[in-house]
Specification:
Blueprint (H helix, E strand, L loop, with lengths): L6 E2 L15 H13 L5 E3 L11 H15 L5 E4 L5 H14 L3 E4 L12 H14 L4 E5 L9 H10 L3 E6 L4 H12 L5 E4 L6 H6 L4 E2 L6 H12 L3 H22 L2 H9 L17 H13 L10
Parallel strand pairs: 1-8, 2-3, 3-4, 4-5, 5-6, 6-7, 7-8
C-alpha cells in the first residue's frame, strides 16, 4: 500500500447454505456488495466471519476465492489468528502470496487460562513480521482474555517492522487509543476501533483514523470518519446519531448475525444461517433489525433486488 489505510475496513460475513455448507457464490456477492457500499478495504476470516467455525480447508478456500474475486479493487485484510506461531506464519505467507494487503491477528490464546507471557506474545508477532513484508494489524479484543499493555504495543510497533495497525476493542478503548498514539507517535500508523462503531465518536476524539465494523452499514458509518477527519465534527456527530440506533442494536442484540440477515433480506445471499452452536436471532430481534435497517435504506437491504 502506498498510503496508510483510513476510513472503514469492514469484516466480510461468511455465507452458508441452509444446510451449513459454505456458499461460494454467496461469498462473491457479499464482496461485490461491500465494494458497492464504498468500503476502503475488506477484512476476511475474522471473528465476525465465523472463522472459529471454519475448517482449515474452508478457510483456505475462502481466502483464495476472496482475494481472486476482489482482484485488487480494494485492499483485502486477511485474519490469520491461531495459538500456534508456526501456523500463523504459514497463514501470513499464504495470504501475502495470494495478494493480501495486510494481515490481522489476535495475540495467542486458548481460553482465558492458556496465554503466553509478554515475551511469547512479542515473539509470536515478530515471527510473522519476519515472514512477510505487508503490514500487520494487532487486534486487541476482550475475546482473547489477553492484556496487551500500551508499553508492549508501543514496543511492538517500534521494534517489529510490520506491526503498524491496531484495532482497539477493549473497554475504554478511547483512553487506550489516546495513550497508544501519545506514546507511539509515528510508529502507530493505523489506530482503529471496532465493535460496530459503538464508541466511534469517542475513539475519533482520541485519534483513531478509522473503524473496522461489520458489513451491515459501511456506507452510513464511513461519512462519520471522513467528516471528522476533514474537520466537520458537527457533521460527524450528526451522522453518528443517525446510525446509532442500528449500531447499538447490532452490537448489543444481534452480533455477527446482523449483516447476514440484512443481506439475505436484500437478496445478496440466499441464507443467513450461522453454524451451530450459534443460534438464529429471535423474531423480535430480527423484526427490529430490519425496521432500523429499512429506515436507513441500507445498500445491503436492496442490493440484490
Amino acid at each position: 500500500m502506498k498510503h496508510p489505510l483510513t476510513g472503514i475496513l469492514p469484516v466480510a460475513p461468511t455465507p452458508f447454505h441452509a444446510d451449513g455448507r459454505v456458499d461460494e457464490e454467496g461469498m462473491r456477492r457479499v464482496l461485490d456488495c461491500m465494494i458497492d457500499q464504498g468500503v476502503d478495504a475488506i477484512c476476511i476470516l475474522a471473528n465476525y466471519s465465523e472463522q472459529f467455525l471454519l475448517s482449515d480447508d474452508e478457510r483456505a478456500l475462502l481466502m483464495r476465492l476472496s482475494l481472486e474475486h476482489v482482484a485488487g479493487r480494494v485492499p483485502v485484510i486477511v485474519t490469520i489468528s491461531h495459538f500456534h506461531t508456526g501456523i500463523v506464519v504459514e497463514r501470513a505467507r499464504a495470504a501475502q502470496a495470494m495478494g493480501a494487503s495486510m494481515v490481522m491477528m489476535m495475540p495467542p490464546y486458548h481460553g482465558v487460562g492458556l496465554v503466553p507471557g509478554e515475551l511469547g506474545i512479542w515473539e509470536h508477532f515478530a515471527a510473522v513480521s519476519d515472514a512477510i513484508s505487508i503490514p500487520i494489524m494487532v487486534q486487541d479484543a476482550p475475546l482473547s482474555g489477553v492484556t496487551l499493555s500500551v508499553p508492549l504495543l508501543v514496543r511492538m510497533a517500534r521494534e517489529i517492522e510490520n506491526v503498524s495497525y491496531f484495532k482497539m476493542e477493549t473497554p475504554f478503548a478511547a483512553d487506550k487509543l489516546a495513550a497508544l498514539i501519545a506514546a507511539g507517535g509515528a510508529d502507530i500508523v493505523g489506530p482503529f476501533d471496532g465493535e460496530e462503531a459503538v464508541t466511534l465518536l469517542a475513539d475519533l476524539d482520541a485519534g483513531a483514523t478509522g473503524t473496522m465494523t461489520s458489513a451491515l452499514q459501511p456506507e452510513m458509518i464511513r461519512p462519520i470518519v471522513t467528516r471528522y477527519r476533514s474537520g466537520d465534527i458537527d457533521g460527524a456527530l450528526a451522522q453518528w446519531k443517525l446510525c446509532l440506533p442500528l449500531i447499538n442494536h447490532e452490537n448489543r442484540q444481534c452480533g455477527l448475525r446482523a449483516a447476514k440477515t440484512v443481506m439475505k433480506a436484500g437478496g445478496v445471499i440466499g441464507s443467513d444461517a450461522v453454524r451451530h452452536p450459534l443460534q438464529p436471532m429471535s423474531e423480535r430481534t430480527h423484526t427490529r433489525l430490519l425496521q432500523l435497517a429499512g429506515e436507513l435504506d441500507l445498500i445491503a437491504l436492496r442490493w440484490g433486488k
